[in-house]
Amino acid sequence: MRLLISRAVLWGTMRPRCRYFSVAQNNRNDRKGLVLGVYEREKEDDSLHLTETAAGFDRLLSGKLTELLKMTSLGVCGTEYWDTCKENIRTAIAGSCRVLQDHSLTHIEVDGCNDSQSAAEGAVLGLFTYDDLKTKKKTRVTTKLHGSGCVSGWEKGVLYGEGQNLARYLMEAPANHVTPSVFADTITNRLLPYADHVTVHKRSQEWIEEQQMGAFLSVSKGSEEPPVFLELHYNGCPDNTQRPLLLVGKGITFDSGGISLKPSSGMDAMRADMGGAATVCSAIVTAAALNLPINIIGLAPLCENMPSGKANKPGDVVTAKNGKTIQVDNTDAVGRLILADALCYAHSFNPRAIVNAATLTGAMDVALGSAATGVFTNSDWLWEQLHKASVVTGDRVWRMPLFQHYTRQVTDCQLADLNNVGKYSRSGGACTAAAFLREFVTAPHWAHLDIAGVMTNKDEVPYLKKGMSGRPTRTLVEFAAGLANQA
């Protein structure tokens, strides 16, 4: 056998800090690997401690793991509004699995590190690669829990990780491969195993017209691809006495900016402008897989924003489902238009709460970068639920303001009830966009998640590779699970 160890420093504060060993067996016909955990405990000493599984393996190797530990060190960080131990485990396991994958190992057993769910999330998220369209593909790896760890926790972590990976897959795929129709079909197929508890409606353009969703239709008319309004019903409480949680996701499968054309540099990333729909729908797939005892309805208006002769022109006025008129001064700010109609429709289900997710504004990226999802909400209770969930998942959220100051900027409009960009288009852009959406909300518990800043990952999240992140799918799942426990 051959021992491999990462030298990356992992941090922790009040809990054990996790490292890992990657152990590879190089038998040509049996390419297996094993991931083992190591801890440093706070307020005891500076020594490192092997997990029970790792200690047993160390004895088999005559103390070789302990010897290697002496060559490593750990660091400490301050309060980060997440569970540091869980993040360390995800990071350590992901790094270890990648090392073994790079050595062409196909089967990896993972030490649960006393938190099998986080270990599974790290393994599943760390090994994800979108190479469907490449001739040469990465080694496909299967992982399983090693030893006597918590099997139910591991299985739950696998589902959490696979849910986020589904969102990553949809966001990463080229726009000509994931059109509105293909997106809807992909989610429909993923929900087939749960048909007893899930109903899917792929609403056509004719239905959208009947619903008088003029804002949504004004965006979709610029493309040759027909729009789809995807409606998912997950009934985790079969008696239907529980009011549903409404999840709404922006589904622009490609955003050229329309007549207000985006710069060509980086426009390819706009294949992921349906990240809100991808995370929302993937969260519902995961909730169904987990059999959560909660009712959830997912809404995803899906279309392209293209600059054809039929497209919106700057200065056009369109009418939303609730009758409000909107002056479209910038055709690149159209995610809020399709969400406006979806939010109006969401109220027809008497929701327990409404949460929408959208890669809505570049201003959100400027404000928070990739550190956290920006949350705008009219409900302290809903904020607490989302924040609590994000501490567990490590996929953080941060509350942003919904002042009347921003509302006045979108309601002071020359030609219509609302302007889609507001008087000062460069100032507080994420806040004015949220204020615009609020004009289509009457529910007392509503939250808007602007995920533009967390859409991609370079190296900020160690257990995610470079590319589309699928964030914050796991936080949405954990949030729904928390509400289910309160029912």
Automatic annotation (TrEMBL):
Enzyme class name: hydrolase
GO cellular component: cytoplasm
Keyword Protease in record: yes
Domain called Cytosol aminopeptidase: residue spans: 165-477
Cofactor requirements of the protein: Mn(2+); Zn(2+)
UniProt cross-references to Pfam families, sorted A to Z: Peptidase_M17
Localization per record: Cytoplasm
UniProt keyword terms in alphabetical order: Aminopeptidase, Cytoplasm, Hydrolase, Magnesium, Manganese, Metal-binding, Protease, Zinc
Biological process terms in GO annotation: proteolysis
UniProt-listed Enzyme Commission number(s): 3.4.11.1, 3.4.11.5, 3.4.13.23
Main localization (coarse): cytoplasm
MF terms in GO: manganese ion binding; metalloaminopeptidase activity
Similarity comment text for this entry: Belongs to the peptidase M17 family.
Subunit structure, as described in the record: Homohexamer.
Protein's recorded name: Cytosol aminopeptidase
